[in-house]
Amino acid sequence: MVRFENVGMRYGLGPEVLRDISFHLQPGSFHFLTGPTGAGKSSLLKLLALSHRPSRGLITLFNKEVSSLARDDLPAMRRKIGVVFQDFRLLDHLSALENVALPLKIAGAKNSQIYQHVAELLEWVGLGRQVDAKPPTLSGGEKQRVAIARAVINRPQLLIADEPTGSMDAEMGLRLMYLFQELNKIGTTVVVATHDLGLIKRFGNPVMFLKDGMLTTRKQDELPSQFSRDGG
Amino acid sequence: MMQIIGKSAELQLEKDVSTRYLPVVIAAMIFLAALAIGGLFSLSNAISDWSATLTGNLTVEIAFDPTADLDKKVTDAVELLSKTPGVAAARAIEQEETLKLLEPFLGRNAALGDLPIPRLIEVIIDEDSAIDLAALNEKLGEAVAGARLDIHRPWLDKMVLLGRSVQILAAAIMLLIGAVTVIIVIFAVRTGLIMHAEVIQVLHLIGARDQYIAEQFQNYFARLSFLGALPGLIVAIIVMFIFNFLVGSLEASMLPPLSLGVEGIIALLLLPLMVALLTRFTVRRVVLGSLERMM
Lengths: 232, 295
Ligand SMILES: Nc1ncnc2c1ncn2[C@@H]1O[C@H](COP(=O)(O)OP(=O)(O)O)[C@@H](O)[C@H]1O
Ligand SMILES: [Mg+2]
Prior knowledge:
The structure holds two protein chains of two kinds.
Chain A: E1 2-10, E2 16-25, E3 30-34, H1 41-48, E4 56-61, E5 64-65, H2 74-78, E6 81-84, H3 96-106, H4 111-124, H5 140-152, E7 158-162, H6 170-185, E8 189-193, H7 197-203, E9 207-211, E10 214-218
Parallel strand pairs in A: 3-8, 3-9, 6-7, 7-8
Antiparallel strand pairs in A: 1-2, 1-4, 4-5, 9-10
Chain B: H1 2-5, H2 22-54, E1 58-62, H3 70-83, E2 87-93, H4 95-106, E3 119-125, H5 133-143, E4 147-150, H6 154-195, H7 197-205, H8 210-249, H9 261-291
The complex binds adenosine-5'-diphosphate and magnesium ion.
């Protein structure tokens, strides 16, 4: 499903923020990605989301080596990937409903099929009354739920979420983690980046631990009890 | 459907302040282009009138001479020409007819006889005969003073040449207008691309094709161009009507009225469509070219 081989990444001409990352994710697996702030979690997810290119190494997604893809192949591949961005990246002038419907619309679905489905999903994440609200009028947690709904509306094969529960209360956070778990049960490969160690302990899925741009796999009981404030 | 009219749902280009000047500039461009087209087609109609009258024939020109009896000279020359073997017919061109040919330059009310206009004789030659034109010219010059066989019709040729030059100028102006329009559109689109870079990236990441994004840009800008072109064209048409009205009412005008002909009118009416298509094509090229450099 996902394979990284000696992947490095840098922004522009800056230093490498990821170094020698190698791992392999089985289809249908559910992984947490954790590490202190600035460790490179978001950067690694950007590689997975086909948003950035690695500066070296090989990334294989859906059995295709990413650097060998033609430009025309990218959209089809991205449609199989749902992404919850850390900063949501909603379109401010579209309503919650239109934001969530966008991946379907872009994929060419008919309007009549879209909106029923989208409204149901928004209802499920607790935004039944905010379907027509524009993102600037929503709270952080509400925006985050819109972003999650947009990421899952297409039934992606790979779901990537960057701190998806960071802006909401614990109860809603858990509810959405259960949504991810349900999607995982029907075959979706899930990667959730979080520094919420409590959440990781609660769910007990395998953990990829990033520190200083290097990746190690740790068992649950080897995790630190909390990340030091300076981020290490 | 809304997409085709030009609404750009996700990019909201219509909220951009930076592109609002575009219709105004396009209106000015179309105004100039319409006037150039007016000149181009009016001239081309005049030129084909001049050349059609004298094509295939030779002309004998009898130089204007206020002291001589020009009518007699014309009669003598016609008689001599008619007797020449190989000449099928020789016909004096009425002065009114000559004036009519020159009307675009002299105005409708130029008084006969006041102008140093040469008398013309149209000579039609038997198709299969080979006349020695140089010898005929010589013979003619001896028999009638001031008569000259006008093989190359230098006088009218010069008019045609002048007409053609002005036509080429008008065509060059059209090209220039097209080039300036393209450049303006390119700058407007580049600005739009920069302003919307973030939304474009999000659209890409949720699976939008370059085409999908390019379409929003091209529809929106084509609509802007079209909407700018309409008032530009309308003002130009009004200006041309006023021009023709003034020309018609002025005595002894040196200017011909504009007469576009059917092709000219069609070309005028196609202008907004053409500029919309040109814009659409330009925008598409620019957007696809710059999206290609993104991941
Ligand atoms: N757009 C960017 N341009 C330059 N440097 C960046 C950019 N985004 C992140 N970085 C740097 O990359 C490193 C890793 O950041 P990030 O992947 O956001 O870490 P995390 O998500 O684990 O907090 C940090 O040092 C950060 O400063
Ligand atoms: Mg991050």
